[in-house]
What we know:
This protein has helices at residues 24-37, 49-59, 126-131, 135-142, 151-161, 211-225; strands at residues 2-5, 12-15, 39-42, 80-83, 106-113, 121-125, 145-148, 168-169, 172-173, 180-183, 185-187, 194-196, 203-206, 231-234, 241-245, 249-253, 263-269. The chain has 279 residues and is of the alpha+beta class. The longest helix has 15 residues, at 211-225. The relative contact order is 0.25.
Amino acid sequence: MKLEPLGPRFAAEVHDIDLDRSSDETIAEVRAALVEHKVLFFRDQQLDDDGHVRLGRRLGELTASHPVVGGVDEAHPEVYALDSSDGGFADVWHTDVTFVRRPPLGSILRAVTLPATGGDTNWADSQLAYESLSAPVRQLADQLVAVHDGNREFGYYLAQRRGGRGNEWDGEVVTRLDPVEHPVVRVHPETGRRGLFVNPGFTSHIVGVSEAESRGILDLLYAHLTKPEHIVRHRWRAGDVAMWDNRSTAHYANRDYGSERRVMHRITLRGDIPIGPIG
């Protein structure tokens, strides 16, 4: 497996690999590289939905497509379709599904239909962002807890389009999206590195501070997380697959392709409960 790093400590393109036909040893190398590089890109893959699911199962335990949104079809309940013709945009910085108790470990995304131009995706390294904060701000962030609320994005969908009944997640059928609390700084369970674990898509506020203080703290952390030196940008082409560690990244899909259609299929790997540096 040949890795081409895209930054000193973040993101890599993997060459000369067929994800659907790789040996168990190679898949184990991919899994290790995912933790180290946080985002991996694979060109010229031939995956369909069946192959996508097979790959995910070799890397970990798959979740449902989403807590609220159904799978792409009955045969593939694990596959989440992001279709711009049906409002499937992701043009806000976010980390996938942080509004549940056990957010996904990681995600695997493949291009299905691409616009002629535009539609790039950007990833931010939350660990590098944390480490490059000044010491006093790191110490403050270490002590904080934030609320993540899926109602902001999916409450209406659950109520109106799914009739109040979502998918099974962590052994329970989702019937409401109760806000959850996660540490602002997450300790990676495999490496022990700390990273920022807040995102504009799902984080509503900081616990135990005033609304103005919460807004100020989150604005500071978001601005720092998305500094250019913390970001890698991927220009999609047919056959591309991206894989990322949801515990150490955030991402954003550019919505710059007008009325052209963009369709991406995603699966997610079951994760664990985020743990902070304190408690």
